[in-house]
Amino acid sequence: MSEPVAETPDPIRDAILAGHTSLGIELGSTRIKACLVGEDPSIVLAVGSHDWENRFVDRRWTYSLDDVWTGVQSAYADLVADVEKRYGVRPESFGAIGVSAMMHGYLAFDAAGDLLVPFRTWRNTTTGPAAAELSELFGVNIPLRWSIAHLHQAVIDHEPHVPEIRHITTLAGYVHWRLTGRSVLGVGDASGMFPIDAATHDYDAELVARYDGLVAATAPGLNLADLLPDVLVAGQPAGELTAEGAALLDPSGALRPGVVLCPPEGDAGTGMVATGAVAPRTGNVSAGTSIFAMVVLERPLDEVHRELDLVTTPAGDPVAMVHCNNGASELAAWAGLFGRFSAAAGVATGSSASADSDAVFDVLFREALDGDPDAGGLLAYNHLAGEPIAGLTEGRPLVVRAPDSRFTLANFMRAQLYGVFGTLALGMRVLADEGVALDRMFAHGGLFRTAGVAQRFLAGALAAPVAVAETASEGGAWGIAVLASYVTYVSEATGDADEPDTSANAAGRVVAASGLDAYLRDRVFAGAPIQTADPDPADVAGFAAYLDRYRAGLAVERAAVDALPLKGTTA
C-alpha cells in the first residue's frame, strides 16, 4: 500500500486555522463590510459585504437595530464563504477583531439595556438650538451631528425618555458592547461624541462639568460622565468576544469566544488608518454617502470655525475635520439612470447587455475628463439631506445651468463630480485661511475605483497632491482590521493586559498612543503601491471658478428647500 501524499503547506490556510488573522467589520451608510487580514496586515485575505439603507421615519434618518444584526451576520457569513472558497477552510477564531461604523448620532439605552428611542444617525440636522448653545458654552464648535448635541436637544425638548437614560453610545460602540459586554470607544470615535482633552486623551473634564451645571435644573441626575463610554487609544485591548457575542456574530456556532477586540472606532478614524494619514501635515478624504476630510494638525487653530470639527486620530492626536452630510449618493443615482438607459437601449457597457454598475461609472467618469475645466457653466448640488456647512437644514438635489452654459455629457459629469467635492472645498478653504499646510492628501472609498478621474478632480479642488493606494476601495473595513492587528502588535511588545490600572496596560497605552504612525509606515504601507495625482493648473483654476458659482448658487438651493417641502414621512 502506498503512503498518503502529504498536502503542500499553505501558510495562509494554516494562519486562518490557527487564528493568526485579524477581522475588521465596518458599518457604513450603504454597506456593511467585513475584511480579513493575515499576519501581514497589508494583505487582504478575504472580504464580505451586505447592502443596507437608512430610513427616513418621522422626519428622522435611522436604521433599525434588527437591520444592524441582520447585516453584520450577513457580511460575516459572506466573508466566511469567501475564505472557504479561496482557501478551503472556515475560520473558527481570530487573533483580534475590530468594529467600526459611522460616527456621531444618538443611541440611548435604559438600565436594562433597551433602546429608548430609534437610532438617530449623523445625517439628522434637527439639533440646531442644542449645538448653538453648547458651542457658546464650551468655546468650541459642536456640530449638529455630535452625540452631545443630540442628547442636549432631547433635554431642551423635554423628551420623556431623558430621565431613563443610563448609557449613550455610537453605532460602533453599540455593536462592540453587544459583542464584549464592555461600553468603550476608541478616542477617535469618542471625539465625535464629546470634546476630548488633548493632554489626557479622554473627555474634557472641565467641559463635562460645565454641561452637568447647564442641565442640573432641567435634567437633574443626568451626570454625563456616567453616560458616556470609556475612552481607549488605538492598540489597547478593549475586551474579549463573549459566548453571547460569538453567537450574535456567527449564529452557526462555529466561531469560538475569547478573541480580543480593539477599541471600536468611527469611519473617520479607520479612513485615516486605511490611508496611513495619522501624522501632522497629512490628511485624507473619505467619499461615500457622506464625504469628509481629516487633516492632522501641527498646532491649535487660531479661531473657532463652524465649518470645522476638532476631533482626533485613533491615537488621540488633534485633527480638523471637514464633514459634509452629502457625498456620492446623488452621483450614484445619475449613474443608475444612465445605466438603465443603456440597458433599455440594449447597449452593452460591461460583459453583458445589462449595464454593469462599475462599467457605467467607468464610462461616465472618463467622459468627464473631456469636460471644460469649469464644467461649462453647469452646477450640480448633491444635497439629499441638510448640509450645515452650506447653511441648509434640508436638501434638494439640483442641476442648474444658464442658457449659455455648454450643456454636454462631459460637462454634466464633470459638474456632478465637482458637486461631490463642492461643500468639502468650502470647508477646506477655511483651513487654508488658517495657514494649515498639507504635504499630501490621501483618498479612499469606492468613488476612486476608476483610476485617475475623481482623484484628479479632487487634486484640483484642493490644490494639493492626492494619493490613492490599491486598498482605497476596501476603505474602513480594512482600516479597522489593521487597528485590530495593531492590538496584537502592542500586546506582544508590552505584555497582554486588559485592566486599565495595571502597569503593563499603562505601558501599552504609551506605546499605542505614540507608535501608530510608525506601525503604519513600517509594517503596513512600506512598499505599498500608491498613485499620486498632482493638481493640474487648469483644473485648479476651473474648479475655483466652479466654486465661486457654487457658492453664489446656494441661494437657489435654499429657495428650493423653502419652495418644495417634503411630501411627508417615508420609510
TrEMBL record:
Oxidoreductase keyword on record: no
Domain Carbohydrate kinase FGGY C-terminal: 284-486
Keywords: Carbohydrate metabolism, Kinase, Transferase, Xylose metabolism
Domain of life the protein comes from: Bacteria
Keyword Membrane: no
Annotated ranges, domain Carbohydrate kinase FGGY N-terminal: 23-248
GO biological process, one term: D-xylose metabolic process
Protein name: Sugar (Pentulose or hexulose) kinase
Family: Belongs to the FGGY kinase family.
GO molecular function: kinase activity
